[in-house]
Amino acid sequence: MSMEIGDRKKIKVGFITDDIDRKAMGTAFYMQRLIEEYATNFKDDIDLVLIHREGKCVVPVCSRARRIPIKTFKLPKWTGITSFLRFFFTCKEEFDIIHFPRPKLFPFFWRLRAKKFVVTFHDAPEKGSPRFRTPTNYIFEWFIKFWGKYHIDAAIADGDFPAENMARYFGLRREQAFGIRLAGALDLRPLRPEEIEPAKKKLREKYGIRFPYILQVARLVPHKNVHRVVEAFGMLQEKNSIPHQLVILGGKSHAPAYDAMVERAISALPQKDACYIAPYIESEDMSAVYNLADMFVQAGTSDGFSIPIVDALQSGVAIVTSNRSVFPEIVGDAAVLVDPFSSADIARGMAQLIGDRDLRERLIARGLAKAKEYSWTKAAAVTIGVYRTVLSRNL
Q: Which residues form the Glycosyl transferase family domain (predicted)?
């Protein structure tokens, strides 16, 4: 298993990547960035093996490591659990670490020949914050709470607050819980002065974005709180007569009841055509989309982390975000904080930024400084530190 490199052991990690191909999902992006870091900056520390069902793990980064495809049983139901159960009992290969990058744990995962088991939970449900969850989500949670947690050596969340909440929700021991901050999606940056007008022209013509605009990047799921941001935008239209467009990036999800709630909020706007759910934006244009916004709003009721907020910090745009959950931890003093359960307070924060150019400039400067704290290289290094910590324990 472990290979000696000088005075340090190379850790053999089995990384479960069955869901890495999911589009527009933060957990899939997390897997991809960790693999990229392990295969480049930490290739002397990690012997990486990707484990997934046949036909999965087809994104380009999967070619960076050796793979073990799991034979898939073609059944009307229970294909995933049946395939993994067989693998758990028949896999002969040994590992130092088996890392599940999301808490999708099937029974008997501990039958794998690994010294330690690491699970990235990202976060856990928070009291008072609505979440869209399927019956399958509840089954995985119950399994972890009542059985699986006794076989987990390290549980990782995306920050200090999420780690505390995760430990409380699942009943984990203090020494099991670790908080590791993630980073942004695209290494964005502020535009140079000569880039601004061409970028504006491109956003108008290519994507139909009107200026000035307020930006929100979020899927339409309850805890992202998009409907209250839309309601706050309507209050600003009515009371402040703002000329802005509200641009929402992220698209619909798998919560049709919440999609309908957002659509009702949009229909109730004084100027409905000023709310724009944008099409897919190409990566090369994302710096412009963030940087040219008058502000970025992300007022979720809860979350494990917010990659879009880090993107906003990097891009040089003033931010309005929630005063609860992980959000204050992410932004520090680089944003206006609001009560996410109050559309009126969200509107207050947005109006504060619209009316105070000096405040916007101060927050942008603080945000660019704060953004330097986040990197995927740092996240990978700390994750490897967790591996070494649990491997050193005799629990």
A: 201-367
